[in-house]
Specification:
The chain is mainly alpha-helical. The chain is built from 5 helices and no strands. Helix 1 packs across helix 2 and helix 2 packs antiparallel against helix 3.
Length: 102
C-alpha cells in the first residue's frame, strides 16, 4: 500500500456516499477511481467495473458529457450490456447531438 492509497480509499468512501445521494460529480469521481484501479476497496475486478459502469451511467443521465463518452467506451469494448450497434448509435447520437435530427 502506497502512502497515497489511504487518501484514495478515504476519498472513494466519501464519494460513494455522495454518489448514492445523487451528486453527479461524485458519481463521475467514483467511476473514475474505480476505472483507474487506484483502490483496493473493491478487489473483485468484475464488481469494480460493474459499479463504475453504473456510476458513469448515472452521471451521464444527469448530462455529464465525459460520462457519456465513457459509457460509449464501455459498450464498444463489451464491458457494458451486450446490445446492438443500432442502439448505441441512436442512444449516443441523439443525446450528444440533439440538434442534428439523426
Amino acid at each position: 500500500m502506497s502512502t497515497t492509497q489511504g487518501y484514495v480509499d478515504s476519498a472513494l468512501i466519501k464519494y460513494l456516499i455522495l454518489a448514492e445521494q445523487g451528486y453527479e460529480v461524485a458519481q463521475a469521481n467514483v467511476a473514475f477511481i474505480l476505472d483507474k484501479d487506484d483502490t483496493d476497496f473493491i478487489r473483485n475486478l468484475k464488481s469494480r467495473y460493474k459499479r463504475a459502469f453504473v456510476n458513469w451511467k448515472r452521471a451521464a443521465a444527469q448530462g455529464f458529457g465525459g460520462a457519456r463518452l465513457k459509457l460509449g467506451d464501455y459498450y464498444y469494448y463489451g464491458q457494458g450490456k451486450i446490445i446492438g450497434r443500432s442502439f448505441i448509435f441512436t442512444e449516443f447520437s441523439s443525446k450528444t447531438y440533439p440538434d442534428l435530427n439523426i
